[in-house]
Design a protein that fits this description.
Length: 509
């Protein structure tokens, strides 16, 4: 399963990946149909926007608008906020709001609602609540003007406002325990039809006739949960569903041979070993950069990509994706597969006899082929890889609460925002749980955070190069995903998300 840009929410993703229970949806799509039926492999445990995360975002976009809209190419455009402006040091973001918007119960959307939502999101305990850590206060000037005051500059704030942190719910429902969990109340283009919705199986939405904005082309939206991609492909071929994202190479190949299908490729997630223990708290060997460099040289990325994904992707040694300023194409192949040099590096670091590395194995992410490939590559340089098989509940607890492992093999989205990459993977958090840092990191992060233009770009590139050369991570490859429709729908991939926004589907003419 894909993490979708949010490393801070990996625990939620891992839990969802392992907790999926089998069921399928039923659909009605055909050319000219008024219903769009989207298939998915993941679903939210709650429709409260404080819990919005990852691949489940379309469930929320249907009923909640965001303050800022993120276009397919990643550009930001007005939504509930019609305009915005930073102060000189980018510690204040002033928003001008629409005046003609109402929630489902008729309550007016205004600046007070923005303040209530953002304060609630920050304190709501959701997987992405940390996005608003730098939010100091929300000042309401009048009904249509609000200013976000930040403790320090946050270059990704507009990105956050176009995502989970920008979803606006009706504050009148906040006092009612769990009200929004199953009964969303937003200003969005659809309303949830509870009578036709079966939580865990199928969510049915009907067009909001009072929507303030441009109507989407479908009167009805259905999102159906499937527990495997084979069932999704069968649903596409029989017209049971209209659109889906396929991640596995075998299923991608199976639809590409069908002339009825319409497809669009997207390179988004990378798969790799995210090292947490760079200070050697659990595995002392990992404290030495030469050991981490050896692990990178041990991995035969090209062979792995060919065997596991049938070459559907691109090998990479960096966590910054092509959409960022920090991306450097040369760093994709910085580490050649060189077991001999890897053994030399281990010897120089004092580990000529190797060491043991214990990692958790989440079956939904690490299949048998990947587990065997990585163990074989490490064994060739004298490193014994021990996999600890975990179920959903124990994975979340042992990895993120107990911090019992030195790393984790994970799929994670490569955001187009440099600061999202830095904030999620480099600053202390879920994927830097031991708070690793060094003088170069401490120097470059503030420059990325407070600079703009060429200065910010050069700082991001310098940080990226430092992370690669220091072996902070062991990326394998970026994965090519396939957006597929039954031929009746055109799908436009969405920057910053593995799954498209609900606005990115249009009928084929």
């Amino acid at each position: 399963m894909s993490r979708n840009t949010r490393s801070g929410a990996v625990a939620a993703c891992a839990a969802a990946s392992l907790a999926l229970a089998g069921c399928t949806g039923s659909g009605t799509g055909s050319a000219g149909s008024s219903t769009l039926n989207i298939a998915t492999l993941t679903f939210p445990q709650s429709l409260d926007p404080t819990q919005a995360v990852g691949s489940a975002l379309p469930f929320f976009q249907a009923t909640y608008d965001t303050l800022v809209k993120r276009e397919p190419d990643g550009a930001f455009s007005p939504m509930l906020a019609t305009s915005w402006k930073y102060n000189s040091d980018r510690t204040e973001l002033a928003l001008t709001l629409r005046k003609d918007v109402k929630f489902a119960d008729g309550t007016a959307f205004d600046a007070a609602a923005v303040k209530a939502n953002m304060e609630r999101f920050k304190k709501g305990g959701g997987a992405d609540a940390k996005w608003l850590n730098d939010l100091d206060s929300v000042d309401v000037a009048d009904a249509s003007h609000v200013t976000l005051k930040l403790k320090q500059a946050d270059p990704a704030m507009l990105f956050y406002l176009s995502d989970a942190a920008g979803l606006m719910a009706n504050p009148a429902k906040f006092a009612k325990a769990d009200s929004l969990k199953t009964t969303p109340d937003g200003t969005g283009p659809y309303r949830l039809v509870k009578a036709r919705t079966t939580i865990g199986t199928k969510w049915v939405y009907q067009r909001n006739d009072d929507y303030w904005g441009k109507r989407l082309p479908y009167e009805n939206l259905t999102i159906s949960f499937f527990d495997n991609e084979t069932a999704i492909v069968n649903g596409l071929k029989t017209g049971q569903v209209n659109a889906a994202l396929l991640q596995t190479a075998d299923q991608q190949i199976s639809v590409e041979s069908d002339a009825r299908m319409k497809t669009a490729k997207q390179e988004f997630d990378f798969q790799g070993l995210l090292l947490f223990d760079r200070d050697g708290k659990l595995t002392p060997a990992l404290r030495d950069p030469r050991v981490r460099q050896a692990l990178n040289r041990a991995v035969d990325r090209a062979a792995m990509l060919h065997a596991i994904r049938q070459d559907r992707g691109q090998v990479t040694d960096q966590v910054f994706g092509p959409g960022t300023q920090g991306y450097d194409r040369r760093l994709d192949t910085y580490y050649p597969h060189d077991p001999a040099r890897a053994r030399e590096l281990l010897k120089e670091a004092g580990y000529a006899q190797g060491f043991t590395l214990k990692l958790p194995r989440i079956a939904a992410i690490v299949n048998d082929a990947l587990a065997s490939s990585l163990a074989t590559d490490f064994k060739a340089i004298g490193v014994k890889l021990v996999w600890d098989d975990l179920d959903g509940g124990s994975a979340v607890r042992k990895v993120f609460t107990d911090r019992a492992y030195s790393g984790l093999v994970m799929n994670i989205g490569q955001s187009a925002s440099d600061w999202v990459v830095v904030n999620e993977l480099v600053t202390p958090g879920a994927f830097n749980m031991f708070g690793t840092t060094d003088p170069t990191v401490r120097e470059l992060i503030p420059r990325i955070q407070t600079s703009s233009g060429e200065q910010a770009k050069q700082a991001a590139r310098a940080l990226n190069e430092h992370l690669v050369k220091s072996g902070w991570f062991v990326p394998f490859y970026r994965m090519t995903y396939l957006h597929v429709s039954d031929g009746t729908v055109k799908i436009t991939p969405q920057s910053g998300m593995a799954v498209p926004s609900i606005y990115n589907y249009t009928p084929v003419k």
